[in-house]
From TrEMBL:
Positions annotated as active site in the UniProt record: 128
Species name: Plebeiibacterium marinum
Signal sequence range: none
Binding site for Mg(2+): 103
Name this protein carries in UniProt: ATP-dependent 6-phosphofructokinase
Positions with a binding annotation for ATP: 11, 72-73, 102-105
Length: 323
């Protein structure tokens, strides 16, 4: 193994830089050459590749975003695009790839690894935490902290006006952010794709809350939940119960930014090193994950296809503690 290429792809996540740094420094330690591919798979196709050395990753451990930039490449979904990418890999003498991203990134990596003779190892980087085979994905803990900070602030104004707030969080098809942030911020209700709630159930719950004369209520809505758009839900509640004075906040992309937490920095550093180790051991088409504080190798196909369940204990906590 003489030369590794590293890239970040899909939605960026805080801690991706820490992972890049770990990969680069570990390669230096192992005397392997390392190149960075700019803008994910698109950079492979466009030959946007540059040499990295230990100093090129100085100071990035604490930075959000990704110095390698990211993209959701349409061209890489085509056989032609992947062919171009492979030609550039040969041109640069790259022997193996490390891809940092989520399920879309690993889906691409898996196909690429089947079509061409190049070992690929993945590092889970997504705020959604929706990958099987790792307790946490890089960026999730930071996003949770960002969400909880925002919900705390909204709680202040909600209480001042005795209002109901619907706060929408990211997560794509998964409710991990909504559930964990819900427990940590004392949300009265969470709406998750994993546990469909009917409008009548929600209404019944809010009526109960209101009858307790709660000072404020917060419904944390996972963007992938089943009931329709957050604005539509809130409008319907307001029509039927104008006295709740409901408001909506969609947190959006602020959840993807910011300096990574300690948890994400350590996870990214460990997985970055583990990814290079995996390649040195001859692994291919796997994701490095962290399960119960141990490194695990998970085939891409499992990481993508197997379903990671939300924690039912946490779900229970929401209803017990909502008061
Ligand atoms: O996968 C990360 C994520 O932030 C999801 O939570 C969200 O659904 C999606 O990416 C948003 O994608 P984009 O930044 O392309 O709008």
């Amino acid at each position: 193994l003489n030369k590794i290429g590293v890239l970040t792809s899909g939605g960026d996540a805080p801690g991706m830089n820490a992972a890049i740094r770990a990969v680069v420094r570990k390669c230096f330690y192992e005397k392997i050459e390392i190149v960075g591919v700019v803008k994910g798979y698109q950079g492979l196709i466009d030959d946007n590749i540059r040499l990295l050395d230990p100093s090129s990753v100085s100071g990035i451990l604490k930075e959000g975003g990704t110095i390698l930039k990211s993209a959701r490449s349409k061209d890489f979904r085509t056989k032609e695009g992947r062919g171009k990418a492979y030609i550039n890999i040969l041109k640069h003498g790259i022997d193996a790839l490390i891809v940092i991203g989520g399920d879309g990134t690993f889906t691409g990596a898996n196909i690429f690894g089947e079509e061409f003779n190049i070992p690929v190892v993945g590092i889970p980087g997504t705020i959604d935490n929706d990958l099987y085979g790792t307790d946490l994905t890089i960026g999730y803990d930071t996003a949770l902290n960002t969400v909880v900070e925002a919900v705390d602030k909204i709680r202040d104004t909600a209480t001042a006006h005795s209002r109901l707030f619907f706060i929408e969080v990211m997560g794509r098809d998964a409710g991990f952010i909504a559930l964990s942030a819900g427990v940590a911020s004392g949300a009265e209700v969470v709406l998750l794709p994993e546990k469909p709630t009917s409008y009548d159930e929600l209404k019944g719950f809010l009526e109960k809350q209101y009858s307790y004369q709660k000072e404020s209520s917060i419904v944390l809505v996972a963007e992938g939940e089943n009931m329709g758009s957050t604005l539509d839900i809130a409008n319907r509640v307001n029509e039927e119960h104008p006295e709740y004075d409901a408001r909506v906040t969609i947190l959006g992309h602020l959840q993807r930014g910011g300096s990574p937490t300690v948890v994400d920095r350590i996870l990214a550093s460990e997985l970055g090193v583990a990814a290079v180790d995996a390649l040195l051991e001859g692994q291919n088409s796997i994701m490095v994950g962290m399960v119960k504080d141990e490194i695990e190798y998970v085939p891409f196909i499992k990481a993508i296809k197997n379903k990671k369940n939300v924690n039912s204990r946490l779900l229970n906590l929401i209803s017990v503690l909502s008061g």
